Inverse folding.
């Protein structure tokens, strides 16, 4: 997924780097922050400087690195002014030693002083040997931090620096990036709201090796789910196809055919209605096949038995959006059209025919329009129509959410 260059425009992030071999990944994390428009400053522990030099971070951020040797009280280059400047403090990697000290309020290094002085949300990405991360004392320290103002990005299982395979590796930079973006971009309207998104073209089996489908890439649905995650929603993405580099904390249900998608959506909508006090939303971005094979054959149909012509019988498919139980749910449909002259009329009719609240109209040029990283949407309700100009799909998704709030 392409991250818009203005996603974190002018947001101020303080990155703490401690002495783990994983700190080389922090360079990629800085690159992601800066590429998304954020201003980044770095504070390093002395042990972290043994793995990566401060000059490397200064080159990437265009800012001086704060450490135990260079704090100044004649300007803003100190642990008080630095933490007052930052909107979010990210510590990645965070060693077991760092977490132990944080949990008990110890501030014997510049980085720990920054953590103790910072009054906002701290995102923490641990990194440690498997035995160290699962040590009861470390787990107790993690529990203490989770009960305060720390948001954890979970470790992962992979080959560690000690050449063993196990839990304890720092999360990938893209996952830490998304967790940070969520802290910075949370919106009270969407926060803790149950939201479902469907995406991708359904795959309707002919036999065990053949199917009919369409060109829908699922990228718009992935962008919608990612934007909702960043806004703080409890989002479930039900899709046949996914974009790359999605937030690891997204709740994803992979499906294939129409019936599988319908069943998953019905069950998830029922659960969503029972959760929380906010009305749930459904963004129906999936491209459901209009027709399905009349029968599905097991195994592989042999061409010598089919003959020189294959008359494949199709049956009109279930309309998921029209038939799913939408009572008590705000519903936004998506409609792709190639007939530019009648596109808006068809989209407006969809509001009544399918009893939904809004339609996102996308007028396509031809089949090559599918799978692009950009889009242009017209957001249509019964009372208004707003054109969202062509942009990257994640940027479009955020603008769709701004309009959906006003339904």
């Amino acid at each position: 997924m392409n991250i818009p260059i203005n996603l974190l425009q002018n947001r101020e992030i303080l990155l703490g780097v401690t002495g783990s071999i994983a700190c080389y990944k922090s360079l990629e994390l800085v690159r992601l922050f800066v590429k998304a428009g954020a201003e980044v400053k770095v504070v390093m522990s002395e042990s972290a400087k043994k793995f990566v030099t401060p000059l490397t971070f200064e080159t990437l951020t265009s800012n001086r690195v704060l450490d135990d040797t260079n704090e100044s009280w004649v300007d803003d280059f100190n642990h008080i002014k630095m933490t007052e400047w930052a909107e979010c403090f990210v510590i990645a990697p965070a060693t077991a030693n760092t977490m132990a000290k944080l949990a008990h309020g110890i501030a014997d290094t510049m980085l720990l002083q920054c953590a103790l002085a910072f009054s906002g949300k701290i995102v923490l990405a641990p990194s440690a040997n498997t035995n160290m991360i699962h040590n009861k004392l470390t787990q107790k320290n993690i529990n203490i931090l989770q009960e305060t103002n720390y948001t954890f990005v979970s470790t992962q299982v992979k080959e560690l620096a000690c050449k063993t395979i196990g839990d304890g590796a720092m999360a990938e930079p893209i996952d830490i990036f998304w967790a940070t973006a969520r802290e910075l971009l949370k919106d009270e309207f969407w926060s803790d709201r149950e939201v479902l998104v469907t995406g991708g073209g359904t795959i309707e089996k002919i036999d065990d090796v053949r199917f009919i489908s369409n060109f829908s890439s699922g990228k718009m649905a992935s962008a919608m789910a990612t934007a909702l995650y960043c806004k703080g929603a409890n989002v479930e993405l039900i899709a046949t196809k996914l974009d790359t580099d999605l937030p690891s904390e997204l709740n994803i249900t992979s499906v294939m055919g129409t019936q599988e998608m319908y069943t998953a959506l019905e069950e998830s909508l029922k659960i969503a209605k029972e959760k929380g006090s906010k009305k749930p939303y459904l963004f129906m971005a999936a491209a459901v096949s209009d027709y399905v094979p009349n029968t599905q054959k097991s195994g592989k149909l042999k061409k010598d038995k089919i003959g020189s012509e294959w008359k494949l019988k199709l049956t009109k498919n279930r309309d998921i959006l029209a038939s799913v139980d939408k009572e008590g749910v705000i519903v936004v449909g998506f409609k792709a059209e190639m007939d530019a002259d009648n596109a808006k009329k068809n989209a407006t009719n969809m509001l009544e025919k399918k009893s939904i609240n809004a339609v996102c109209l996308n007028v396509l040029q031809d089949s090559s329009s599918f799978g692009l990283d950009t889009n242009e949407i017209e957001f249509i309700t019964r009372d208004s129509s707003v054109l969202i100009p062509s942009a990257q799909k994640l940027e479009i998704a955020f603008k769709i959410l701004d309009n959906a709030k006003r339904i």
